[in-house]
Amino acid sequence: MELNCVFCAIVSGTAPASVVHEDEQLIAFCDLMPINPGHLLVVPKKHAANLAELPEETGALMFPLAQRLAARIRRSPLPCDGINLSVCDGRAAGQSVFHSHLHVVPRVAGDGLGFPLHVDVRVATRSDLDQVAGLLRAEP
Predict the structure, then answer these.
(1) Which of 14, 31, 33, 74 has CB 3.0 to 4.6 Å from 39, enough for a Cys bridge?
(2) Taking residues 123-129, what's their average pLDDT?
């Protein structure tokens, strides 16, 4: 547990949350600033500031839980035309709480949420892609 981490406080029960799931490894609760009603966060109970610190075993549990929660959202009376799953890893990627977490975001047609990475994107050359792939293959 990190002293100044709001998610650690939620896990310990010292901060309030609207919990929809809890087990030994994970907790899932409603986002305090939801994009749409039903926006949930899947959070490991053990503090990991980012993906590099997140144990693979814990990360492997997060996606299946997000799938089950997405199915619950779709079965619920909440408006939902689709679901986005999102991880923001680092300040530059939009992470604002530095405790790794997975967003489960119900989407409604016309809700205005976009994916800004697709703005002014150029198609990469095969040579550029092969170079990047080679660099990443070389990493342990």
Answers:
(1) 31
(2) 83
